[in-house]
Design goal:
Layout: H1 2-34, H2 38-57, H3 61-68, H4 70-80, H5 83-92, H6 97-119, H7 126-142, H8 152-179, H9 183-195, H10 198-204, H11 214-243, H12 245-249, H13 254-266, H14 273-290, H15 295-299
Length: 318
């Protein structure tokens, strides 16, 4: 019963995370076109997240990082902390928001799958492999250059940045799972360590904060900081702990779908027929992957007990 309840909570957490990340991409693209820079958004992200975390872990934050170990805490912060949003926002200055919303989750899915295959002895089932291939194919179609008038060199550079950020976040998820880090400790480590260099970033990096209205800055603190920086990080870590890094990554293909909907309302962007086809391919691939059983589990006789991942989902990197 408790296991089923935790699985349901993890699914709800994953859906909430999808909504947060979709709004984050659209809001970031909007401000990058107006006043703010990539480092401005990263700064506001961790200012907001730090405000949330300091009220929760002002006494226990350092202690939890000491229990985790400073080397591990620094590794998690390097992968999902300050460099991560800077790279994404940098990419958004070159490529459309839909590209970021598609390539970031695509690379997270791919690298989570790849790293899990390297780090475990279990082989993925044919159904899961087909599902992953379908997800990647759908996301590649989603970002096909036929629908953009931007310079292809700039767009390609932005896309490379998105892929790199996805590899970083997949590595973060794998380490969280491997080290069995609880969500509060992981989130506190990433956020608090990322706040330390913010004064230097503000002093030496290009900024547009002086030209941005107060309402825009406040809204980005809420969206990038409270929601994307703190809440989404906690939610994703919780999903990883409950369902495994591979299964957690399967929520990510929903991000471009929701981003298209939000982008239509906020930015006036309408999906092309190719993007709609890509969405259908991604949904099919996600369904195949989510319900596939690992080969080792499928070969075992049923004993009436489910694995910790539940619902046929493999526990990875234990």
């Amino acid at each position: 019963m408790a296991r089923d309840r935790n699985t349901r909570l993890a699914i709800i957490a994953g859906l909430a995370m999808i909504g947060i990340y979709a709004v984050q991409f659209v809001a970031a693209r909007f401000s990058l076109r107006e006043h703010l820079t990539s480092t401005d958004l990263a700064t506001l992200r961790f200012v907001g997240a730090g405000m949330v975390l300091l009220t929760i872990t002002c006494r226990s934050g350092v202690a939890t990082m000491q229990m985790l170990g400073w080397k591990r805490a620094l590794a998690l912060a390097a992968l999902a902390g300050l460099p991560y949003p800077i790279i994404i926002n940098w990419g958004l200055t070159y490529a459309p928001a839909a590209h970021g919303a598609a390539l970031c989750p695509a690379s997270i899915v791919f690298f989570s799958y790849l790293l899990s295959q390297i780090a475990t002895t279990d082989q993925a089932s044919r159904q899961r492999t087909i599902g992953i291939v379908a997800i990647i194919a759908g996301l590649m179609l989603f970002i096909s250059p036929a629908d953009t008038g931007l310079g292809m060199t700039d767009v390609f550079f932005g896309d490379l940045l998105f892929i790199g950020s996805g590899a970083m976040f997949a590595s973060y998820a794998v380490l969280v799972r491997r080290w069995r880090v609880d969500p509060v400790t992981a989130t506190a480590s990433v956020v608090l360590l990322s706040c330390l260099p913010l004064p230097l970033v503000y002093l030496f990096a290009p900024t547009g904060l002086h030209a941005a209205p107060a309402a825009e800055i406040a809204s980005q603190i809420v969206i990038q900081g409270f929601l994307a920086g703190a809440a989404a990080m906690f939610l994703y870590t919780f999903v990883v702990r409950q369902l495994g890094s591979q299964t957690a990554s399967l929520f990510m293909p929903c991000v471009p779908i929701v981003t298209v909907i939000v982008g239509m309302a906020v930015l006036g962007e309408t999906p092309t027929s190719a993007q709609l086809a890509a969405i259908a391919i991604m949904a099919a691939g996600m369904a195949l992957s989510a319900f596939a059983k690992p080969m080792a589990e499928a070969a075992r006789p049923r004993t009436g007990q489910s694995r910790p991942g539940g619902h046929g989902v493999p526990e990875t990197l234990d």
